[in-house]
Amino acid sequence: MRNALAMAAAISLSLAAGSAWAQNAPAQAPAATQAKCDNPNALGVARIVQIDTTGGPGFGFEHFKAYDFLRDKEVVLTFDDGPWPGHTPAVLKALADECTKALFFPIGKHAGWYPEILKQVAAGGHTIGSHTWSHKDLSRLSTEEATAEIEKGIAAVSIGLGNKPTAPFFRFPALRHPPELVKYLGERNVGIFSTDLDSFDFKMRKPDQVVKSVMTKLEKHGKGIILMHDFQQATAHAAADLLKQLKEKGYKVVQIVGKTPLEPKKEYVDMVMKEIGGGLETARPMSSVIQTIEGN
């Protein structure tokens, strides 16, 4: 009973197909984009799950077992370490072709280097959390250094999105989460994502290996939060086939959104702007500013 009450307090569910969700959602909640789908056989989004991250709840049975909110044959697609040229856009195209949504955990430095790609993720209606500033193992840093890694990552993603708040979700690099940092994120009301199924796609060179890894683990577990990396070339090339197989096997995608957006702390915004240079928040896409006109 206690777990059921806690789950009800932390998670509110709504059907993706119902327009009532958008009408009744709290005013401060970031809207989940449900664009018109031109693919009648698309994988789509079966449900939208809104999470109240007050107190920093954790998700993903590899480390956090309080909230088993997925039904049988439901998956949450998550992608780490982007944005990255070529690879992230390929993942976005595959998701768009199947009219489905994912949860992205960008690295702050990558968001600073490629804000135009990060904005494409947002334009696709996907949820965007954060994944530290430079993907350091926080368990090897002092609490002060690790806190700066977390906050600079949040700030960089916010800046890359055009000074907009992020979703209140965070994933630790290598899933290593020191207790003092879990406590800190709880005080910041940031939800922590581990995983149910780690694809280990960073160890793979071929797209079919990524697909096999995910599908084999899904067959065993029946559902789950899937960890992948839009930074990885094999995953970028595997995305379309993976989504097709998920559809063929009867799996359904659940999109995650946060109840309350996460605002970056000003001192870290200033720190990031000083480090990566001013003007990023208003910069045009690099492709519209710089073009190769001769040579490869």
From TrEMBL:
A cellular component annotation (GO) from this entry: membrane
Highest taxon listed in the record's lineage: Bacteria
Gene Ontology MF terms: hydrolase activity, acting on carbon-nitrogen (but not peptide) bonds; metal ion binding
InterPro entries the UniProt entry points to: Glyco_hydro/deAcase_b/a-brl, NODB_dom, Polysacc_deacetylase_ArnD
Chain's role: Is involved in generating a small heat-stable compound (Nod), an acylated oligomer of N-acetylglucosamine, that stimulates mitosis in various plant protoplasts.
Native organism taxonomy: Bacteria, Pseudomonadati, Pseudomonadota, Alphaproteobacteria, Hyphomicrobiales
Protein's name according to its UniProt entry: Chitooligosaccharide deacetylase
Signal peptide as annotated in the record: 1-22
Gene3D superfamilies given in the database record: Glycoside hydrolase/deacetylase
Keyword Hydrolase among UniProt keywords: yes
One Gene Ontology term from the biological process aspect of the record: carbohydrate metabolic process
Family (UniProt): Belongs to the polysaccharide deacetylase family.
Key words of the record: Hydrolase, Metal-binding, Signal
Keyword Cytoplasm in annotation: no
Organism of this sequence: Pseudolabrys taiwanensis
CDD domains the UniProt entry points to: CE4_NodB_like_6s_7s
Segments forming domain NodB homology: 73-254
